[in-house]
């Protein structure tokens, strides 16, 4: 049940650290523009996503309302009506539609057609409440390993990044939350980029949208149960099932099995121990077997945990691990749902 | 009128520290107050603020650094959160006992457990008896203003006490809100340069904090008690000056909202009083006469003002955001203080304690509604003493979200 029916919640999904500034520029600028239009606004970041880590999916929020915002001190946007993803792989890695209001819009920064995005989210139960998918090629949002200043530190300076401006223009066209004029008046220096986003956004109505589906998802409430502070450790050599990290991944390592000799350099170098070796002689090479080169061992990657960090493809002596855009694959959906 | 910005409480404090032209800053990172220090570090690095910025090796060291610097006559700033506040505990008493008007912001965070990043007042409240001035900001604007107000109050020659300006973690520290920054000339007028009567000086060596004998102890303690009493007297005057110079102001001890005809009121500190106000608006539309009273100072606790003002209501619902396990009513420190203040009153309201927002839990509007209905239900019991016996036979403490509030079906109390 929405506490305030006129409240518009905007959630921007982004990659920790590398896209953080971009996300905050979008939410802050959107709030500023709406404020200039006489509306009540908030812009803030998800607290539990912070302090952010490189590539980790995180959220930044804007809230816009014609009357004063009734619950200004909350942790999340429970029922967003606009969801923005600063890169397309986020759509595979998270349930970005969680809690959306009926008639919502999903805007994704990608050169791909909205149909590609629509195909990736058709399994999500909230799909029927999504009215529209929009895509815009706003440029590569992430800058690998280049921290852009953390929100915790608030060390950032205002700047007009082109990517944010393009996304804002696309938001204006796809949703009308704020007008193109307001955006360009607030940031005249970015007017060209804003207009590009406005003109070039691709929109696609979701054929599964059901206007009759007016149920809005209730926020998940905190546990009311006794909490046990002693929890079982994972089994030896087991995995911590709760800490799936595959949704950090933008690029997937693809092993050319013809060239690969199962030398295990990637296996020993992987910081997350998610490269496994299997085969009839698995383990023989590791113990110095002279026939190691002829093994039928196969290298494989546990995609639930691979963060796409790139160490394996950098270190492979035969260059037989190829980084490939995660969106090229239909599998690898992670679908992590965050309660807060 | 100063510049209008939308910034978080952390950033607002950094702006106020810059405006106060602080001389020495000691930092050590811990969420959620860290943002203040990073912003101050940037200001110092970029030449916006001329101050010594010391990276301490822990909170105990932070407080020790500012103790020494304050003794040498510097205006100093430090801060912490959660377990950082308790790690520095040993140094709090020497700072107040030697009358160094150190300012240490607290961005509230739970202790371990749960140790999550959420706000709870427990860590700050645990320091309430150390001779420091202490109170809460409910908004980034109030956080900005409290930094200036507390320096002015603490550095008064009649007071010379350290100060804990507190703000709820995340709710105030992280969510940006509108802030009007003061002009430099206004700050200069309100907060003159810090010139203590006695400061460490190599040319005139003195010892501060020598070993004391048993017969000196009581006199030292009386000195701190009198300084706190002086602070209590000075607060209205300082708030008047603030309002005159900055053109905006606060009620010095209790900020009341829609209390003129209120039968029941929420009584609390800090961030949770903001949604309480919005809830009061909504509940009044449903015919419930609800008001809000925000306590501005935990130390010095304004006993007479609390006693006089709260006696006007039928029921006071304390928003208790910290624990004092096994204390009176097995509740929290605010509960004990309010009951004590009202003991000699002629018209004593019924008092309900709502343990709410612990661990940083968000108190939703629905929960305020349930609390207000519980207060109205309690109001039907008549004045205190009417029922007699067994502590008046009524239930005093509710864990919001864990048990049904009076007049409400069992289940989730609407907290999350």
Structure description:
The complex is a heterodimer of chains A (340) and B (416). By secondary structure, chain A is α/β, with parallel strands linked by helices. Chain A has helices at residues 20-36, 89-93, 114-121, 162-175, 180-186, 191-200, 265-269, 311-315; strands spanning 8-15, 40-45, 57-65, 82-85, 104-109, 130-136, 202-205, 251-255, 275-278, 298-301, 321-325. In chain A, helix 3 (114-121) links the parallel strand 5 and strand 6. Chain B has 416 residues and is α/β, with parallel strands linked by helices. In chain B, the strands form three sheets. In chain B, strands 3-2-4-5-7-6 form a six-stranded parallel β-sheet, with helices on both faces. A six-stranded mixed β-sheet of chain B has the order 9-11-10-12-13-14, sandwiched between helices. The chains are: A alpha/beta (340), B alpha/beta (416). At the A-B interface, strand 2 of A face helix 2 and helix 10 of B.
Secondary structure blueprint with pairings:
The complex is a heterodimer of chains A (340) and B (416).
Chain A: E1 8-15, H1 20-36, E2 40-45, E3 57-65, E4 82-85, H2 89-93, E5 104-109, H3 114-121, E6 130-136, H4 162-175, H5 180-186, H6 191-200, E7 202-205, E8 251-255, H7 265-269, E9 275-278, E10 298-301, H8 311-315, E11 321-325
Parallel strand pairs in A: 1-4, 4-5, 5-6
Antiparallel strand pairs in A: 1-3, 2-3, 6-7, 8-11, 9-10
Helix pairs in contact in A: 1-4, 4-6, 5-6
Chain B: E1 4-7, H1 9-19, E2 24-27, H2 34-45, E3 52-55, H3 59-71, E4 76-80, H4 82-87, H5 89-97, E5 103-107, H6 122-125, E6 133-137, H7 140-154, E7 163-167, E8 177-180, H8 184-190, H9 214-246, E9 254-257, E10 264-268, H10 273-285, E11 290-295, H11 303-310, E12 315-320, H12 333-342, E13 350-355, H13 365-379, E14 397-399
Parallel strand pairs in B: 2-3, 2-4, 4-5, 5-7, 6-7, 10-11, 10-12, 12-13, 13-14
Antiparallel strand pairs in B: 1-8, 9-11
Helix pairs in contact in B: 1-2, 1-7, 3-5, 7-9, 8-9, 10-13, 11-12
């Amino acid at each position: 049940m929405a506490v305030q029916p006129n409240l518009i919640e905007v959630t921007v999904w982004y990659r920790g650290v590398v896209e953080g500034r971009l996300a905050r520029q979008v939410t802050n600028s959107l709030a500023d523009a709406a404020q200039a239009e006489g509306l009540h606004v908030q812009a803030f970041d998800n607290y539990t996503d912070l302090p952010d880590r490189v590539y980790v999916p995180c959220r930044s929020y804007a809230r816009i309302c014609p009357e004063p915002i009734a619950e200004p001190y909350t942790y999340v946007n429970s029922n967003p009506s606009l969801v923005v993803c600063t890169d397309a792989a986020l759509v595979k890695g998270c349930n970005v539609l969680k809690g959306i209001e009926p008639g919502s819009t999903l805007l994704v920064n990608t050169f791909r057609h909205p149909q590609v995005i629509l195909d990736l989210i058709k399994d999500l139960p909230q799909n029927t409440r999504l009215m529209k998918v929009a895509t815009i090629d706003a440029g590569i949002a992430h800058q690998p390993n280049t921290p852009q200043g953390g929100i915790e530190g608030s060390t950032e300076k205002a700047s007009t990044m082109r990517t944010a401006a393009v996304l804002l223009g696309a938001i204006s066209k796809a949703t009308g939350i704020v007008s193109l004029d307001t955006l360009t008046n607030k940031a005249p220096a970015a007017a060209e980029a804003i207009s590009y986003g406005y003109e070039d956004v691709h929109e696609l109505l979701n054929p599964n949208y059901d206007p009759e589906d007016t149920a809005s998802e209730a926020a998940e409430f905190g546990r009311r149960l006794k909490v046990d502070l002693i929890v079982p450790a994972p089994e030896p050599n087991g995995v911590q099932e709760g800490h799936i990290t595959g949704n950090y991944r933008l690029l997937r390592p693809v092993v050319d099995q013809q060239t690969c000799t199962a030398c295990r350099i990637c296996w020993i170098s992987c910081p997350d121990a998610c490269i496994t070796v299997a085969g009839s002689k698995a383990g023989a090479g590791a113990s110095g077997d002279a026939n190691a080169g002829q093994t039928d061992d196969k290298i494989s990657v546990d995609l639930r945990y691979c963060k796409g960090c790139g160490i394996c493809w950098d270190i492979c002596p035969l260059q037989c691990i190829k980084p490939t855009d995660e969106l090229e694959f239909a599998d690898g959906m992670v679908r992590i749902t965050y309660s807060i | 009128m100063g510049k209008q910005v939308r910034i978080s409480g952390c950033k607002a404090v950094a702006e106020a520290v810059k405006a106060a032209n602080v001389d020495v800053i000691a930092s050590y990172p811990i969420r959620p107050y860290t943002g203040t220090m990073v912003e101050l570090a940037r200001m110092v690095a970029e030449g916006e603020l001329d101050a010594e910025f010391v990276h301490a090796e822990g909170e105990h060291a932070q407080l020790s650094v500012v103790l020494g610097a304050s003794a040498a006559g510097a205006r100093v700033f430090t801060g912490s959160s959660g377990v950082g506040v308790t790690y520095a505990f040993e140094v709090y008493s020497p700072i107040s006992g030697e009358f160094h008007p150190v300012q240490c912001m607290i961005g509230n965070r739970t202790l371990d457990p749960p140790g999550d990043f959420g706000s709870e007042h427990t860590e700050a409240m645990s320091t309430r008896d150390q001779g420091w001035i202490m109170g809460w900001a409910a908004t980034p604007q109030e956080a900005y203003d409290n930094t200036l107000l507390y320096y002015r109050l603490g550095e008064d020659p009649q007071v010379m006490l350290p100060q804990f300006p507190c703000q709820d973690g995340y709710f105030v520290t992280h969510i940006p809100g509108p802030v009007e920054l003061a002009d430099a000339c206004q700050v200069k007028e309100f907060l003159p340069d810090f010139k203590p009567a006695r400061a460490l000086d190599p040319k005139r060596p003195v010892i501060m904090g020598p070993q004391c004998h048993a017969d000196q102890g009581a006199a030292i303690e009386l000195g701190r008690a009198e300084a706190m009493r002086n602070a209590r007297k000075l607060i209205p005057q300082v708030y008047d000056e603030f309002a005159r110079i900055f053109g905006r102001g606060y009620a010095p001890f209790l900020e009341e909202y829609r209390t003129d005809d209120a039968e029941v009121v929420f009584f609390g500190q800090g961030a949770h009083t903001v949604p309480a106000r919005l809830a009061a608006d909504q509940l009044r539309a449903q015919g419930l006469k609800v008001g809000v009273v925000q306590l501005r100072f935990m130390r010095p606790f304004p006993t007479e003002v609390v006693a006089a003002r709260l006696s006007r209501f039928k029921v006071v619902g304390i928003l208790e955001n910290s624990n004092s396990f096994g204390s009176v009513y097995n509740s929290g420190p605010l509960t004990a203080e309010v009951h004590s203040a009202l003991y000699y009153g002629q018209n004593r309201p019924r008092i309900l304690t709502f343990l709410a927002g612990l661990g940083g839990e968000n108190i939703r509007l629905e929960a305020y509604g349930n609390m207000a209905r519980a207060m109205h239900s309690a109001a039907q019991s008549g004045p205190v003493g009417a029922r007699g016996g067994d502590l008046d036979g009524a239930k005093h403490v509710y864990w919001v979200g864990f048990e049904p509030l009076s007049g409400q079906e069992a289940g989730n109390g609407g907290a999350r």
